[in-house]
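Study this pair:
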Amino acid sequence: MAKVQKSKSTLQALAAVLQASPESDALVILGRLLDSLPIGFHVSDCDGAFRILYANRVWERWLGREKLPVTGKTLGEVFPTAERVGILKIMREVCVTGQPKHLKGFEFRELGLVERGNRGDTSRWDWEIYPLSGPTGSVTHLLNVILDVSEPRPRTSRPLTADRQAANRRREEASGVLRIFGIAPDPRADRGGEKLSEREYQVAELLAMGFTNAAIGQHLQVSPATVSSHVAHILSKLGFRSRAQVAAWVVGRRLERAEDRKSADARPSS
């Protein structure tokens, strides 16, 4: 099972934004989850230059080598046309108002060139910008979520319904990440989590760590078929459709439990 390694400084940046312990295993799982998704995530500060503190691995497929790594660069350095197309203006508004903004289906030629090559495809993107607040309640960072919504070329090998299903799955997976950052709470998932059995919790935890069904079976000394059954029950109970959504739920649950422990430790003893 391949592991995606994140630098300590990158995980510390996520820890600061999420107000979590840098030593938390949940951050490692979150980094691996974000790197596995075909969705662009990056976190920037709100100082006007919008320096990127964290970015997931998909940017390596969307940008040329001269732009990498994007972490540590300002948004203008990575995307020279960001001011002209209005992205920086919108980000400033989000920092001031604390209200999320979305750019839907716009052309951004600086993205996707590596993946598409010189085929001349028209690329369209949804760029979603969410405010992240610090302990005082003021906006300190921005979470940027970028999805490729380009129309696929007509082809007979894969129906358009499959492309639409894949797009819907990406949005569901993005929503799972938003819940981790406290942007999109899902009461349904919280209620469903209480119904998981102890074994299902174990399977969900291992699934979030990137284990395959076969590896989970070896770890728990059960058959892959039994694991598949557990995974199906987990997805049904949580109302999810993908393993990535379960992984996001596990990360959020771990972070919440860590926060509860920190709050309990901070209370004066009677």
